[in-house]
Amino acid sequence: MPFAPVVSPLVRATGAPPIPAARVWAARYDGRAGPEIDLTQAVPGYPPHADLLQRLARAAGTTDAAGYGPIDGDAALREALAADLASFYGAPLHPDDVAITAGCNLAFGMAMTVAAAPGDSVLLPAPWYFNHHMALTMHGIETVPLPCRPEDGFIPDPDRAAALIDARTRAIVLVTPNNPTGAIYPADTIARFAALCRARGLWLVLDETYRDFLPAEATPPHTVFADPAWRDSVVHLYSFSKSYCVPGHRVGAIVAGGAFRAEMMKVLDTMQICPPRAAQSALAWAIEALRDWRDANRTLMAGRAAAFRTAVSQLQGWRLDALGAYFAYLRLPEGGPDAAATAERLAAEQGLATLPGPFFGPGQQRHLRLAFANVDLPAIAAVPARLVGLHRG
């Protein structure tokens, strides 16, 4: 009898992707409550700019786009992003600080490869972005939950984090605006985490995928980059997917300096070789050329957030615990089914696809995440009827 091959126990220990699981529930919906409303995945609810699409198409047909590029990304995009970051944060950032990646999920995984080894641990705000936890599990790195409480607006507490650090801790991850809650971390909180990481010899990994959807008055959202020593302990992550509506082209970025960046080049060469070339070409143009368009989309998203807040305010028993950027974190009425059962019934019976809190870590059995950015105002206005319809059913 031949031996059966085995798979990695780390991969086996990793949970299944949540969004496909939720869409299995939605596949049972028969249309009784109206058209399906899919609030599961954070995707822009509007198309890319027409000029960007044209440039993507032209670039894809060139021989340059078909060939290998620099390991850390094409110079034009690194220069454009560095200039944009410097303007946004009001701090001196340079192309040599920037590495372009094949999406921000890969950026996170590669950053963790540099920052920690199997058996080490990383503090992750809980509730967490599930792909972050999945990546850590696959790497053999322990996820240490950093509890973020509704009564604190889901803002992590640096003092609480300090108490969780031990000899195996290598990094603290912050995600702001947050996925799944939408919480926006105050500048002072981020500064205190940066100081904590410097004092304890840890990396601060700051994921600002949704920073282009911050309120205009929140610029800059922190002053971490104003300290020239940031390159010794801070790693910044960014995504082009939401801001430019190009998630399928997989382009993100890691901003880091010094020893981290030198070691990261090994990881970039091994895991991606180079980022997608056509998208880099188009985005290098788009960063400056589409600035007004990005600002208009930020206003559009703010309008959807306000509409969602208004829509759910009429509901009895439901509580909006956090809202921002693309997301609302909604607490279920007391005494009813838990979040997993509620999300399944909402998808299958009411055509409202959401993600239950347990997908985002422990202690979230009474919450749903709704990605309101996906849909227009009429769909947002229809959400309360679907939630009420669930209880009537």
From TrEMBL:
<keyword id="KW-0663">Pyridoxal phosphate</keyword>
<protein>
    <recommendedName>
        <fullName>aspartate transaminase</fullName>
        <ecNumber>2.6.1.1</ecNumber>
    </recommendedName>
</protein>
<dbReference type="Pfam" id="PF00155">
    <property type="entry name" value="Aminotran_1_2"/>
</dbReference>
<keyword id="KW-0808">Transferase</keyword>
<comment type="similarity">
    <text>Belongs to the class-I pyridoxal-phosphate-dependent aminotransferase family.</text>
</comment>
<dbReference type="InterPro" id="IPR015421">
    <property type="entry name" value="PyrdxlP-dep_Trfase_major"/>
</dbReference>
<dbReference type="InterPro" id="IPR050596">
    <property type="entry name" value="AspAT/PAT-like"/>
</dbReference>
<feature type="domain" description="Aminotransferase class I/classII large">
    <location>
        <begin position="38"/>
        <end position="377"/>
    </location>
</feature>
<dbReference type="GO" id="GO:0004069">
    <property type="term" value="F:L-aspartate:2-oxoglutarate aminotransferase activity"/>
</dbReference>
<dbReference type="InterPro" id="IPR004839">
    <property type="entry name" value="Aminotransferase_I/II_large"/>
</dbReference>
<dbReference type="InterPro" id="IPR015424">
    <property type="entry name" value="PyrdxlP-dep_Trfase"/>
</dbReference>
<dbReference type="GO" id="GO:0030170">
    <property type="term" value="F:pyridoxal phosphate binding"/>
</dbReference>
<keyword id="KW-0032">Aminotransferase</keyword>
<dbReference type="GO" id="GO:0006520">
    <property type="term" value="P:amino acid metabolic process"/>
</dbReference>
